[in-house]
Structures are given as structure tokens and as C-alpha cells.
Design goal:
The structure is a single chain. The protein has six helices and seven strands; from the N terminus they run E-H-E-E-H-E-H-E-H-E-H-H-E. About 40% of the residues lie in helices and about 20% in strands. Strands 6-5-4-1-3-2-7 form a seven-stranded mixed beta sheet, sandwiched between helices. By secondary structure, the chain is of the alpha/beta class. Helix 4 (about 150-160) links the parallel strand 5 and strand 6. The two termini are about 15 Å apart. It has helices at about 30-45, 90-95, 105-125, 150-160, 175-200, 205-215; strands at about 1-10, 55-65, 65-75, 95-100, 135-140, 165-170, 220.
Length: about 220
Amino acid sequence: MTEVKLAVLGGSGAGKSGKARSRAAPVTPQPDFTSALAVRFLTRRFIGEYASNAECIYTKHLCLDGRQIHLEIYDPCSQPQQGKLSLADELHWADGFIIVYDISDRASFAFAKALLYRIRESHIGACKKMVESSVFLVGNKQDLCHMREVGWDEGQKLAMDNKCQFCELSAAEHYQEVVSMFMKVLRNITSNFKVKEKRRPSGSKSMAKLINNVFGKRRKSV
């Protein structure tokens, strides 16, 4: 069975939760809609502005192109946390990233841009023999086009600049589009595994277990 570790990350801007933020305050993720996207894929249910006060990892078994997959999805908590933009733990743990922003919230797009920059920066600084993580940029809440603040072309350009795939969708209205996006990401990750297994240090599995212990996340089977 193939193990796949996927981190779904994003952030919301000032006013997203109805609370004012000081201009001097650091930008921190409030990933309620990123969690809703993951839960939509895992359970078929859309639960709106999903919020969690603790980090956890969802687990699911599925079959992809005849291959059995043990999928783990990292779900960051919805509470602001200092230093999350460093992504140090996630970069070591994840095989791939889905970076989500809200098309009706420009601040969340700015945060997605910062996340992509951090991921790209880590790849540039890493050993050239290491395989880059699979990254997919997603503009969520396409059903709120009448409130759009971020154009489709802006998302496409950001994805091209960071050499990642891009799509817009509505987790609320289009379950199949969510599934299709996740399947594309999983296929991209598994297609890289043969190369990555040849180049990854032998102690990587032990490191992954160590990081999981450091995270102290709850695991949820779906």
C-alpha cells in the first residue's frame, strides 16, 4: 500500500471571521475554508465554515488507478498561530500541498502567494537531487463570483509563476470538481514516488514518524 501525505493550507484576510485585525498584527492563517474543502472530499459533506481548535491528520484508504492508497491529510487548526508561515514541519512531512484561497477575499490570496513563495524558497534551498513537492493552487468559493475580489487570470498567473497547477471550484456546490482536483494531486504525487524513493535519504520514514510525534495531531479515519 502506498502512503501519501498531503497538506491543505490557506488563510483568510481581515474581516473574514467578522473580527477586526490591527494593521500591525502579523498575518496568520485562519483555515476554516481549507478544512471544509478537505472534509468535502473525504466525507462528501459540505459543512460550511468548518472550524477546529486543534491540528489533526485525517486518514482515508482509497484505490487510485488500481493502486491502494493510504492517504493522510494535514488539517491545521482554525485558530491563529504565531510562526505558521515558516512551514518547517509541513515541508518535511508532506509529499504535496494544496494551497487554497477564497476568490472573494483578496487577503487570503495574498496569504496563498506567501505560502507558495515559502514552498518555492525551500525547494531552491534544498539539495538539487531532491524531488520537489507536488503543489496545486485552488481558488475556492466560485459560487461567490458576484463577490469576486481575485480574478481567474490572477490565480492562473500566480500558479504559472510558481510552476504549479491551478483551478477554481466551489466546495459548496460541486463535489465532483473537488474529487477531480484531489485525484489530480494524488496522481501527480504518486507519479513522483519512484524518483523520490531513489533519492530520499534512508532515514526519511523515521523522520516522518518523529515529525508526527512533534505535531501531536489527532488522527481521524474517514
